[in-house]
Write a structure and sequence with these properties.
The chain is an alpha/beta fold. The protein is built from nine helices and eight strands. The protein has a single domain, classed as 3-Layer(aba) Sandwich (Rossmann fold), CATH 3.40.50.1000. It has helices spanning 3-7, 18-23, 57-68, 82-91, 103-114, 131-134, 148-153, 166-177, 181-189, and strands at 28-31, 43-44, 50-52, 73-76, 95-97, 121-124, 139-142, 156-157. The two termini are 28 Å apart. Residues 1-11 have low confidence and may be disordered.
Length: 190
């Protein structure tokens, strides 16, 4: 077992031994938004429209680090949100599908555009609408507060909740499993 595996700061790996191997094969990370990139709360303003979303800064850096390692990120969400679009642009996420009813169809589009297949994808969701896109993924992940049924079908349940570093936990795992973490860390420290 590599030393990178032993230094990973995620408790769930001992419960999910297949997570390390699956993370080593990931070529794209596909994320839901509400409950994954955010804590799942939706703030509605006086005008009846969604007014705020909070994103974790460390999640954002994890996404950028994956990109540096040549692993793109995609977003597939059931809601339309200008905030998600702005955050995606800020992070350089090129594959953003909003207002999606059938997330499996959107996943196929993302994979086709990247010339990849479902086993190449890590998909992170937190509730029933995410089953569609998670079922064929090579690596199914959910945050700590995900619905129990989603946890039961996931290869990994993160120790952190959505909107609170869960995505960064997955990004770090992928980078460590693919032997890219230490190189990126050394560059950051230089």
């Amino acid at each position: 077992m590599s030393s990178a595996f032993n230094t990973l700061n995620t408790n769930p790996l001992s419960q999910y031994p297949q997570a390390w191997e699956r993370a080593s094969k990931v070529k794209v990370l596909v994320l839901d938004v509400d409950g994954v990139l955010t804590n799942g709360q939706v703030w509605i303003g006086a005008d009846g429209k969604e007014s705020l979303k909070a994103f974790d800064i460390q999640d954002g850096l994890g996404i950028k680090l994956l990109e540096l390692a040549g692993i793109p990120t995609a977003i597939i969400t059931g809601r339309h949100s200008k905030m998600v679009l702005a955050r995606s642009e800020e992070l350089g996420i090129k594959h953003v599908h909003m207002g999606v009813e059938n997330k499996a169809v959107a996943l196929v589009e993302v994979l086709k555009s990247l010339k990849l297949h479902a086993p190449d994808a890590a998909v992170m969701g937190d509730d029933w609408p995410d089953f569609q896109m998670m079922k064929s993924a090579g690596f199914k992940v959910c945050p700590a507060q995900a619905h129990e049924a989603v946890k039961e079908t996931s290869h990994l349940v993160t120790s952190r909740a959505g909107g609170n570093g869960a995505v960064r936990e997955v990004c770090d795992l992928i980078l460590k499993a693919q032997n890219r973490y230490e190189e990126l860390l050394a560059h950051a420290r230089a």
